[in-house]
Amino acid sequence: MKQQELVEATGKSIATIKRIMKSLHDKNYIRRESGKRYGKWEVLV
């Protein structure tokens, strides 16, 4: 799911979505695979 799709589904701002995803990444709940542009997030929990 793209960040923009999360914005539309939740009604939150893009800044809020990015902040939450950074927090999840810092806590090792998610990680990025296969690069920044065409990669995807993997859930580790």
At a glance:
By secondary structure, the protein is α+β, with helices and mostly antiparallel strands. It contains 2 helices and 2 strands, in the order H-H-E-E.
Question: How would you sum up this structure, described in words?
Answer:
- The structure is a single chain.
- The protein is of the alpha+beta class and 45 residues long.
- Strand 1 and strand 2 form a beta hairpin.
- The protein has a two-stranded antiparallel sheet.
- It has 2 helices and 2 strands; from the N terminus they run H-H-E-E.
- It has helices at residues 3-10, 14-26, and strands at residues 30-33, 40-43.
- The two termini are 17 Å apart.
* Tally of helical runs: 2
Mean pLDDT: 93
What class do helices, strands and sheet pairing give?
A: alpha+beta
Distance between the termini: 17 Å
The helical percent reads: 40-55%
General shape = globular
What is the secondary structure topology, with strand pairs?
Elements: H1 3-10, H2 14-26, E1 30-33, E2 40-43
Antiparallel strand pairs: 1-2
Search tags:
alpha+beta, 45 residues, single chain
